[in-house]
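Worked problem 6 (solution included).
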Amino acid sequence: MSENTKIEFAKHTWNPWQCPNGTRVMTAPANWKKPLAWNRQAEKDGVRIRVFPSLCDPFEDWDGVILDHKGSVGWRYDPNDGTIFKPPPLDPNLHGCRFLTMSDLRRDLFALIDQTPWIDWMLFTKRPENVAKMFPMRPCADCGVVGVYNPDCSTCRECRKDISKNGVRGVGSYLYRWNVSLYYSASNQETLEAGIGELLKCRDLVRWLGISAEPLLGPINFIRVLIEHKLSLPEPKTWRREDFVSPPWLDSIIVGGESGPGARPCNIEWIRSIVEQCRDAGVACFVKQLGANAVQFDDGGIDGNEMADCPYQTEHAKGGDITEFPEGLKIRELPHTRG
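Solution. The predicted structure is:
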């Protein structure tokens, strides 16, 4: 559930909950303590680390039963007490407790994020439309309540008023996490266009916005999509690439081919095109892997429609050894490492 990961862009993978067989199971209390230990060590070393929750989407709208680490139904006594591992009472209604919800786990996760300032958290989602409405508030400076609205607190009331009036924008003091990067998972042009507009609405919530183009299943033109979401456009003759890809639009793109049995093809030229788009715009690009089924088109073109039988062979099963990458693709940058 947590380890010194083999995923190249993080120091550790760690999961607050898992999703086996269509269920949701929160991990054990000891697992939740590990990021605190990592944070203490990182502070001692004076070196920030990256943690990637790899098996869960923090912004899914799950409304089913959540099990505890022993397989029993999870309960919550007080949504603000930070305790989810108490045994249920004999009469839940009499004692005022309730079933554990995904909102509870999400608040617990973000409370942990707020307690680990030496960790850069890399959150990946396929549901960017949920982020703004599910993003927990920071602990209130006055009442100390975490992630929920306290009607008895004047500061909480002011926060609710600001959010109601202005939406996400302008409420950074209530919501913004400077140690979080948010990535939208998109595999081709269609999925990118379906969600990037919602991702861009989250600029005021986190320090970095990015795209995880993995597994990459087709060519992607970021310029075309981002032009459509720019609030004010200059005359077409003055358009520049960097106007549409560089911050405040995107900070990072991670790209890689599919791995595992039955991996679908990933064309080297699709990856190369993304690398070039990032280079031209000054956006951090991280080529994670070529995939288990890397290929090249005979025509070498990004717009080619016919898949040539031209595999790109690598010794690494996932095509993840950077020394085996073609020239021009040996690049692994993240905004964290670019200052």
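Discussion: Residues 81-86, 168-172, 231-239 have pLDDT under 50 and may be disordered.
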